[in-house]
Amino acid sequence: MAAWVRAAHGATALPVALRKLGEVFDAPVVRLCRLRHADPARPQYVVSHDATANLSEAGAPASCAAAVLGPYLGTAREGSIWPADTQEFHDLPRLQTALRARRLAATVVVPICQGARVSDYLEMHFAHPLSGPETDEIEALAAILSEAWKDRAPGILLTTVERDTRRGPAAARPDTADPLAMANPYRLSRAEYRVCLLLRQGLTRDGLQGALAISRSTLNTHLQNIYAKTGVPSQADLVHLLMRDAAGHDLRGRAAHVA
């Protein structure tokens, strides 16, 4: 648990923390997934520890969160646990086959941070059916895992995914293009683009309101739309994404490319 708390603050690598969680709970596969509610079948970011990769040549199984939580995907209580047996995925044969190929018999999904459009889930996969005491242990610690993650350092998941993508296939490649790139990869409106541009320049919410001459509710609407398009859960993560590529970028003339 200490490794997870340190990882949330950037003091320990997330894959290391996931491996240690796997050791604590006897789970050979532990994954941290960020899902867009509008497209839960395609995880936006995935960081994982997988001790079963040598058992199958097939790719790692997709996120199980949508299959396990169903209609409660975006509303399940943070820190709650959602267990499922592999056989319950009979209506998702590809997922079931991928889990069985790795000899995984049970899954537990823990919603650790629920957002309006994007949520983070911790998924643990087990090689054996879970006993009552094992489920109780996970339930007792799930709230701590969630609270630690909600207090995480801004951009920690994005930074980890980018680093691991450069090193190898330990994480899914993210869609992390510069929101202010000339190609307008997230299809920002002109108003949304201006908000991002001013955020990159360091303006606060009050500064944004003054510079754009808009109300707080209008600004909040722009920010929520930007979060949905870029897949970030908060203003802090959006600023991290904007500042990541800020050095050396020439912003002149980009407004012509904004939808």
From TrEMBL:
GO MF annotation: an example: DNA binding
InterPro entries linked to this entry: Sig_transdc_resp-reg_C-effctor (IPR016032), Tscrpt_reg_LuxR_C (IPR000792), WH-like_DNA-bd_sf (IPR036388)
Source superkingdom: Bacteria
SMART domains cross-referenced by the UniProt entry: HTH_LUXR (SM00421)
Domain HTH luxR-type: 185-242
GO biological process: regulation of DNA-templated transcription
Alphabetical list of Pfam families matching this protein: GerE
The protein's name in its UniProt record: Transcriptional regulator, LuxR family protein
Taxonomic source organism: Roseivivax marinus
